[in-house]
Amino acid sequence: MSQIRAASPAEPPRTRCTGPVQRSLAGAILLLLVGCGQGDEQASASDLPADVLYNRIEDARVLKDPQDTDGPRLGTITATDVPADLRQGRGCRLVQGERLLLLANARGAIARLDGRILRLRIGGPLGPSGGFFVADGASVSIGRTVPAAGQQMISQGPATVSVGGARDRPIEKVDADWACS
Question: Most CB atoms within 10 A, among 21, 26, 157, 174?
């Protein structure tokens, strides 16, 4: 005769799904259910209308250039912006059409960068071939084409200007005229 014994309070009652095979099967079913939810999201993205899908792809592909949204870094300066010590003696000017962009002499330079007037230090040779100027968070490099051997450098001509130094903006290139007296 078999004896029936009662379960003790410290021992939980046994169920039919407690074996290792049953636990593995329950885990596999759970993983399948979790994986099915991810597949539905991908399927819904591919079911978008063509124009909506195109716009989403285009928005992700086209990155806005900070230069396009913030405007040019090098702005126009006026006579009232120029301190007295930069008005005296020989110097050089960077102009674009009728706009004065930078004024320099042996004491330094002045320019409007990112909307504010900045006093720039001379960071390299200054003369008819160009110059290099620096300030906190800004640099302006002006270069002219070097004349061929036997030709003299004229005091005025087209120059390429590189405005840099800002961590959040790419180097900006500007075409202007550089003249020294």
Answer: 174
Q: How far apart are alpha carbons 104 and 180 in whole angstroms? A: 9
- Give me the residues paired with residue 132 across strands: 141
What does the DSSP 8-state code read for residue 44? H
The span from the CA of 102 to the CA of 121, in Å, is 12
Query: Which amino acid is located at 152 in the chain?
Result: Q
The values of phi and psi at residue 89, to 5°, are 80, -175
**How large is the average pLDDT for residues 140-166?**
81
pLDDT band at 67 (very low <50, low <70, confident <90, very high): very low
Specify the amino acid at residue 118: L
Residue at token pair 């040779």? 125
Contact 130, 142 (CB under 8 A): yes
- Give strand ranges (E) for the chain: 74-75, 91-96, 99-105, 108-113, 116-122, 130-135, 138-143, 156-164, 172-180
Distances (CA, A) of 20 to 17, 23, 26: 9, 5, 10
| Alpha-carbon gap, residue 123 to 152, rounded angstroms | 25
Q: Provide the whole-model pTM.
A: 0.58
pLDDT at 33 over 80: no
Q: How confident is the model at residue 147 (pLDDT cuts 50, 70, 90)?
A: low
The DSSP string of 15-48 is -TT-SHHHHHHHHHHHHHHHHHHHHHHHHHHHTS
